[in-house]
Amino acid sequence: MIDLSLPIRNASFDTQEQHIEYIDHYAMARQRATAYGVDPGDLPLPGVHSASERITLSSHAGTHMDAPIHYGPTSEGKPARTIDQIPLEWCHGDGVVLDFSWMEAGQVIGVDDLQQALARIEYTLKPFDIVLIRTDRWMDFDRHDWAMRHPGMGREATLWLIEQGIRMMGTDGWGWDIPIPMMAEALRKGDSDAFFPGHYAGRDKEYCHIEKLARLNELPTHGFTFSAFPVLIERASAGWCRAVAIIDSHSE
To answer: PANTHER family given for it (predicted)?
Structure first.
């Protein structure tokens, strides 16, 4: 089993809000003793209770899954589904890694790029495969400009994957599209089609993607199982997930 997730932590260069307040065993003993109406000195280990944390967190912080509602209010002409409405069957299946680690920041992945990457690994997609876009930009997690260093998926490439029967996709880059400041600059110059084209494709065709994966470079291109189940947050546009690849060492 290979962990494909990045941690949620303090001092992160993620632009999404995340803050962890750690409450140690002694502080919890004082707090809970008052709530329970007991003396902390009477606890089995005097003055010591259980540790806890208080977390302030964007639903898009860390490794997370975006739901269709994130892309727009509707998908395929119907109210877009929230993260608690995503079929669990989408979240577990055969994984396929397509290598775009050679691409530079801001480059847009097109349909031809996907087809060439599949040809290189001699693989034909089937419905409900989980396609993982490898950029290796997870290695920049500790760089202050992490969110500015990845290539991204274009509209046509995203729609093409959906047309192949893919409902779950993912990237080890900071985001599914190219870096936001680059898209914003294009929008200011009048190119509205360049603004979140990969995300907005989900308004026309329903799908989910996972952002901020890690260690895709440690995986085979296919022949493994991928699992990433989102935390059940009511009516949310995303949910944190622990993404894992399962490789059967006895299958060869």
So the answer is: BLR6059 PROTEIN (PTHR43564:SF2), KYNURENINE FORMAMIDASE-LIKE PROTEIN (PTHR43564)
